Amino acid sequence: MLYPSLSTTSQFRRLLPDDRLIFTEGAPGGPAFLIESGQVLIFRERDGIEVEVARLGQGDVFGEIALLDGGVRTASARALKDALLFEIDPAMMRRHIDAADPVIGMVMDILVSRLRSVVGPGGYLRPDTMPRQTTESLLGQMRTEREIARAIRLEQFVAALQPIVSLADGAIAGFEALARWQHPERGIVLPGGFIPIAESARLVGYIDWLCMKAACLTLRRVKDEYGAVADLWWVSVNLSGTHFAHPETVDRIAAILKETGLPPSALKVEITETVLVSDIDAAASVAKSLRDLGVRIALDDFGVGYASLAYLHRMPLDTLKIDRSFIDQVTASPQSEVIVRAMLSLGESFSLTTVAEGIERADQAERLTALGCHYAQGWLFARPMLEAQLLPWLESYR
Length: 398
Known about the structure:
This protein has helices at 64-69, 90-99, 102-116, 132-153, 195-200, 204-226, 241-244, 249-260, 273-278, 280-293, 309-314, 324-327, 334-349, 362-371, 387-397, and strands at 13-16, 21-23, 32-37, 40-46, 49-56, 61-62, 76-79, 83-88, 157-166, 172-183, 187-189, 234-238, 267-272, 296-302, 319-322, 353-356, 375-376. It is an alpha/beta fold. It has 2 domains: 4-151, Jelly Rolls; 156-397, TIM Barrel (Alpha-Beta Barrel), CATH 3.20.20.
């Protein structure tokens, strides 16, 4: 539920039986409603015929725009099934947005912002001027944003770890953590199913932190299981640019390491070149503080961004990760091999370890070994695995 704290305020609950009108078109702005159970139909009446705008269910909120601006509603609503609703008045809405945790407040602000772009003067969706497909797409995206926010609160985002191996001898050196959504109904959802929407709703940073915590816990348990063999294993976790340069980043990471019991030397934070270009001073300051903490920094997708040598010189980096777009053609294109060779030479000049991403064929691994690349990851070695899959795989690999 988007407003769990409201459940304690029982006087705002009310049950509407089937076919009960909640409000009619042209009504002045009043409460917004959070659906606890049942279904609600939002519709326009045109020439005496109901035109459906949306069909809403548990967890959906409607009436937000009229609520905030006090305008009249340009759509009607009625209960399709017995609907248990929360009434949320303007003052309550504002208090809860202001006082809520960042996720809830941010989702409400994004939701309201999205609705404002497609509402008429009265404050609701304009089905007569919007294609139905556009309306459904907008409502679907808003539902997914709210679902992602709920999943963040319930910590449904976890880490799948993909092994990184030494090209010299095939031994495991570390892992990269990749976010997965453990959806209660859809099962494991890959990043393509939630990252783009989470980014547009500015929620991806919260997923980063959950993924980091889960990855640190998994590696800690792996180290406990394997002892001295795993002493030098690390886990790399991506951190979005907007969060990496945040003043609280170092404290957050230190808290996660303390909570999970993972040594700082076993964590690498991956950033992209975009982070360096957007604010090199802030990025360098955070990176130095992380280095002082004992955490290492990897530059991900190297070669596809715009970072100059001056940026690399200012950052206390440990690792360069060469993007798979260069690896794909390393055995087939002389130009690709020249580029990869130059990247590896640059890494050596800066005393950085190098990791090749996206290795799928043995000939790629052989060529990169010959070129002097240190580590590699890709489906040739293993796919990303949740902890329950990783432990048996490690046993068979050993």
